[in-house]
TrEMBL record:
One CC-aspect GO term: plasma membrane
Subcellular location(s) per record: Cell membrane
GO MF annotations, alphabetized: molybdate ion transmembrane transporter activity
Pfam families: MFS_5
Protein topology in the membrane: Multi-pass membrane protein
UniProt lineage: Eukaryota, Viridiplantae, Streptophyta, Embryophyta, Tracheophyta
Major place of residence: membrane
Name of this chain's protein: Molybdate-anion transporter
Described purpose of this protein according to its UniProt entry: Mediates high-affinity intracellular uptake of the rare oligo-element molybdenum.
Keyword Acetylation among UniProt keywords: no
UniProt keyword terms in alphabetical order: Cell membrane, Ion transport, Membrane, Transmembrane, Transmembrane helix, Transport
GO biological process, one term: monoatomic ion transport
Species of the source: Brassica napus
Amino acid sequence: MEVFYYVVFGVLGIVVAALELSKNNKDRINTSSAFTSFKNNYLVVYSLMMAGDWLQGPYVYYLYSTYGFSKGDIGQLFIAGFGSSMLFGTIVGSLADKQGRKRACVTYCITYILSCITKHSPQYKVLMVGRVLGGIATSLLFSSFESWLVAEHNKRGFEQQWLSLTFSKAVFFGNGLVAIIAGLFGNLLVHSFSLGPVAPFDAAACFLAIGMAVILSSWSENYGDPSDNKDLITQFRGAAVAIASDEKIALLGAIQSLFEGSMYTFVFLWTPALSPNDEEIPHGFIFATFMLASMLGSSLASRLLSRSSPKVEGYMQIVFLVSAASLLLPIIMASLVAPSKVKGGGISFSGCFQLLGFCIFEACVGLFWPSIMKMRSQYIPEEARSTIMNFFRIPLNIFVCVVLYNVNAFPITVMFGMCSIFLFVASLLQRRLMMIVDKPKTNDWTPLNERNTEDDPLNV
């Protein structure tokens, strides 16, 4: 492995350590012992859930290829996962609001464990069922846990500012440290112990089962609006009205879809960008480096969110602009450096610069997660939190499915340019959100059981 990779990883590690160790009283939030216990319980559960997810990620494509499926067949399996998340995500989100977020979190564990079990079968139809289950589980992971946390935090009477501490720590550990450890552990199972590509999925199921046990034994139930006189259509209509009547919610949904769509597209693009001529690159080590960069971003977010200034709506404009600029690097390098025709070898000079840019993008991802969670907790109404959050994922999943279907139809520079444009638009929308954040809503959210549905613009 080239020294370059170690240098980048080492520098990022030193910066992250320095940021964490140099925090002063201004960067720390004074909390109560009751909140600390609550926060730590959630972080344990969230880290176990993310471990179950991160263990699977690097080996899904590899497992399918070992079963002998073609690139096209594997692409269809991936589309099935994102498609099921799009089709069923809003339904399970609404059920979470109505039937309880704790139940939804347990359902996530069961659904993902079943998805892991299907990986033992080489039958295409069984694997397709597993991808559909995985798509449903993903929707639950990125809505139900956050919805439970916000509702429980408010129910227990903790200060609103303390919520940002839980968000930043969840991203630091769950999306950073746990991802690195899961990647190394998965590599140990598959390569060092020679247990095969299905071993990480079995390990993921074990972590999910442990997390489910903690949820069942220590979490209380909370709801969005548990009234019995609402069906799913009514909940969907209410969520749509909330989005249409409050520009803040609509802007937040558009910003989230644009950023996450670019982020998921980047996941498919970084490997061919760094090795266009089949250069030998250490995928696992680069992935760990990206996660370390993400930890750097979440550490910065922790500092920013602990202070009253700058506001999250303000600094996120800069984050989106920086992320847009970082994904322009492949286009810039392609125009400045003549492409090499030599196959194989180590990472190129152009690849080194692109890797640094990608680390900057991952740092922006680390800043994005706790910041968007903070804004969602402020602007999305509690009555339909999970439903609205999964509404936001519909355009995201459509976009990713389209990209997957046409990934070979456009040059990689065009794909990066498209992502950069989306991120720039997200910055403009974020500026609009900042401008109206102190203005009153045009139509305040009213709980559905108090709303006159005859006056509902979406009631037909």
